[in-house]
Q: What sequence folds into this?
DNA sequence: GTATGATTCAAACGTTCGTTTGAATTACTT
DNA sequence: AAGTAATTCAAACGAACGTTTGAATCATAC
């Protein structure tokens, strides 16, 4: 009847995706069972298989929903910056900001579940299961090539394999920051009020990453911090 | 008979620990089943419960075996450096080197399974299961306090909460580098020959981290890279 | 050699897993 | 209102999970 209000076509799908996002983040892919998941979503146990086919397909759908738009936004930002620059190479910091900003802004999006997803994403970079790694790699491939090219223009005196490693480090720092489980709280006395201030976090992160990415190559240039005490 | 040679007291325990180390790294804690694990170790299915009590206790034992000596070595290195410095604060790079060197040297230890463990460790930092996070946090607590104090002396003009975040970033970069699953290969065109050159990797990593850790605070000092294009 | 404790073994325990089934219900078209 | 497709539902499926059991085997002391 009219009691159950609007049923926007595929509400069940959305409910499942939201619940999966949160539970995969909290318990991992194997730890979040179908029964726990469907109960939290308020749907029947068989709904996942009906709408997605299998649990693996659900995992893929969870990433599809967020990752494709997120990477599209990253590339759009980069395109816009390069257009504004009129052929000049971008500042490394601007490129870094284009890459991490899209993730970090989702942290504040607690209402729409963006926070859940971004933490899930951070954890997934170190996921052992091969199909999931393949999935993530496939979804990121184009974006990574695009950003590597931008960095190569911005940092012409950093060699290609050197740049590869620095992007690797950048990726690691970001993913760990996103995942930010309570491990860090237990390890180093976490200050919860900082965590939600994504603007301050972004400034700290961008500063840290920029310094690391633009640092002079050890073997080449003049002043390095080496030598030490 | 004399056919089976020396049986050094607890060989079964060691075989189980080695197999667990590798399989936990490859498949995760839940993904590596007892049957798979005991088969690889060449022991009976019940051996884990007999020698360790439960699968959870085995997980804990896997970390105990490597983590305690590793952190002890980190602190010993730091003690030695500070003793040599005669009260002078250490160079930040030296502290970083003391921290990451102990992990990276294990990468080359393929024979004794050190590589397996260090990759397992990398992925465990983002492990969702609460008992495991608690375990890791407990095992790291003392070491982190010790290193935070050393960094605080080396970087007197970096505020405490600022320092916390930079150490957080450092931790993330290291753990991701250690985990270094094939994700990175799929994402960015991995060069396998680099991965095993742990010496070159350490130089790159130390350089990246040092630059990030000593970078000037945005709000305070004069020259920052900000502004950008 | 025989007794004692430690370890290994094959088999089974109960539980939970992801998935499937076929009927019941809902939504939509004519 | 009748008919058709889409969705939901309770129930069950076989498989795999971690763990337990009790007898068999081993090592070691007397």
A:
């Amino acid at each position: 009847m009219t009691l159950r209000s609007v049923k926007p076509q595929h509400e069940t799908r959305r409910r499942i995706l939201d619940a999966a996002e949160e539970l995969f983040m909290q318990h991992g892919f194997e730890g979040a069972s179908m029964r726990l998941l469907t109960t939290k979503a308020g749907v029947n146990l068989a709904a996942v298989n009906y709408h997605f086919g299998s649990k693996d397909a659900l995992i893929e759908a969870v990433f599809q929903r967020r990752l494709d738009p997120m990477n599209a936004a990253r590339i759009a930002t980069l395109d816009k910056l390069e257009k504004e620059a009129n052929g000049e190479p971008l500042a490394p910091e601007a490129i870094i900001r284009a890459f991490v900003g899209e993730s970090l802004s989702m942290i504040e999006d607690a209402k729409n579940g963006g926070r859940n997803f971004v933490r899930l994403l951070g954890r997934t970079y170190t996921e052992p299961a091969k199909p999931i790694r393949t999935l993530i790699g496939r979804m990121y491939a184009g974006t990574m090539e695009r950003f590597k090219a931008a960095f190569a223009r911005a940092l012409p005196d950093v060699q290609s394999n050197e740049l590869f490693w620095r992007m690797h480090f950048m990726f690691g720092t970001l993913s760990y920051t996103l995942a930010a489980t309570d491990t860090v709280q237990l390890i180093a006395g976490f200050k919860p009020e900082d965590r939600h201030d994504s603007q301050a976090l972004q400034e700290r992160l961008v500063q840290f990453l920029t310094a690391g990415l633009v640092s002079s190559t050890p073997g080449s240039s003049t002043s390095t911090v080496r030598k030490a005490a």
